[in-house]
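Notes for week 9. Today we move from apo structures to complexes. The key idea is that a small molecule is not decoration. When we ask for a structure prediction with flavin-adenine dinucleotide present, the ligand SMILES becomes part of the input, just like the chain. The input block below holds both the sequence and the ligand string. Read it once before you look at the output, and try to guess where the molecule might sit.
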Amino acid sequence: MNDYTICIVGGGACGVAALAELMVQLKMTGVHDKTKVVLIEKGDKVGQGLAFGTDQPGHLLNTQANLMGIHSFEPDHFAGWLETQPDDHKNEVKGDNQLHESYTTRRLYGNYLKEQVRHYLAEAEKIGLEVHIIHDEATDLSPDGEGWEVTLAHGPVLYADHVLLVPGTPKPNNFPEFDGLANYFDFPWPSEPIIDGIPKNAEVAILGSSLSAIDAIMTLTDSGHQGKISLYSLDGLMPRVQPVEGRSYKRKYLTLSRIHQIRRSEWRQPRIKDLFRLFQQEVENYTGAPVDWKATERKGFPAQELLEQDIRIAEDGGDAFINILYDMRYEESQVWDWLSIEEKQRFKKWLGPYWTVTRYGMPLINARRLADLFQKGKLEVNFPMRDVTFDETKQRFLLQFADVWCDEREFLINATGPSKNVEKMQSVLIQNLLKKGIIEAYPVGGIVVDPSKMEVISSKERVKNLYAVGHICNGLLLDVNAVWFNVQCIATLSEHIVKKLQHGDHS
Ligand SMILES: Cc1cc2nc3c(=O)[nH]c(=O)nc-3n(C[C@H](O)[C@H](O)[C@H](O)COP(=O)(O)OP(=O)(O)OC[C@H]3O[C@@H](n4cnc5c(N)ncnc54)[C@H](O)[C@@H]3O)c2cc1C
């Protein structure tokens, strides 16, 4: 009989990373033989999830292989695994980068995750740690002493001392008025409904112009779609292009020490305008010349033009914006933590769209495919989108943009991306916990957690031994859309949980 039970809700990349990390820490502290780990996954496979469950050849990682390892102390674990793969897998490694810096298909990464699950389940038996995988949906949690009663959609209620929520990226419900319409596809994933539901020569409208929209374009083109594809987005910005080999650059101005100086010399938290000023100094230091900042404006420019320019910049090792932000990736979370809610909201409104398209760029190989579609007149980006409605008589979606235009399209794909706002996340569990006040919405998005141990905080309910990682923390934390960051958060919370178990601390 085990003294403790740890329950992981969600069997995607974070769930798998949590299983592996907890196993290591439980074994190292010798509490593995009195602990049981239960992983609940509503899908039929563990180690896929939304991001890495795709079967599409054009759905690529947006992060280099050597940052995709599931172990926080071994970010290059996936890159090492790639070296062991048989040659026929090498077709899944895209682009001209070296293997360790390559962008593979996300389905290959899904295979890596599945293999990790098999490996760690076998290791668990060897080291004497009880692990259970339950294929069911967790629909609710109720406090039970210092632990939790976990309600499942089908199976019996189970008890856990500690619960980790890693539910991934729930669908948004931002166009409920279209739900049920035959030609409306509410998410770019899974791809089958889109491939089966849209005739090859049909004109297709896609809402959004981010990485999600690019996934939808790749799904269509890889399944032989010939019809015109039109993106409709609020700002027309597409992700920039990841450089083949980024120019390494050592920052001088936009650094933690410079930002911290503001805290101790002016006795206040940094503001977005402070960060932008330091960023401007950094860019001019990088370029070695004053910059015409007006000329760096991207909104309002044709997407095709910007893309072709971005491809040239990527082939040439990237520019100041891309390489400075890339160099800052391990520090931006600390800076984000120093910002007040108002400043975080100001960032999301002002610089957020630029930061997102620069930090989460698309691999060069996909950029070249999009450029080819533009050149053939098969792709267009319309903005600013004003409204989209459905005309029952015409059985067409009416898409208004740029105040004057209104297009009619028969097929519509919602690629506006996952909802940031927890109230809009389509998940029975999340909505139940929200209603009960066990989780609380954070004004910038997602829920409130204590970032020092990823423990859920609520002002409404006494919440203990409940943790959350990933997209559900998208407001309070910045890089939740990156495996490397989520894996670091998982190492932090695992240490916290295991310390409690080690000291027999149920509280
Ligand atoms: C399309 C897409 C592409 C991405 N590409 C990258 C990339 O290239 N590199 C990168 O670092 N990051 C990428 N991300 C970000 C990615 O979301 C994060 O990296 C994240 O770590 C993914 O893992 P996850 O476990 O949080 O989510 P997911 O992989 O989505 O897994 C969540 C799992 O939880 C299960 N689940 C949810 N609710 C319940 C419940 N109530 N009960 C039981 N099971 C439940 C789901 O079925 C799912 O299997 C991408 C995200 C998306 C959406």
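The chain has a mean pLDDT of 94.
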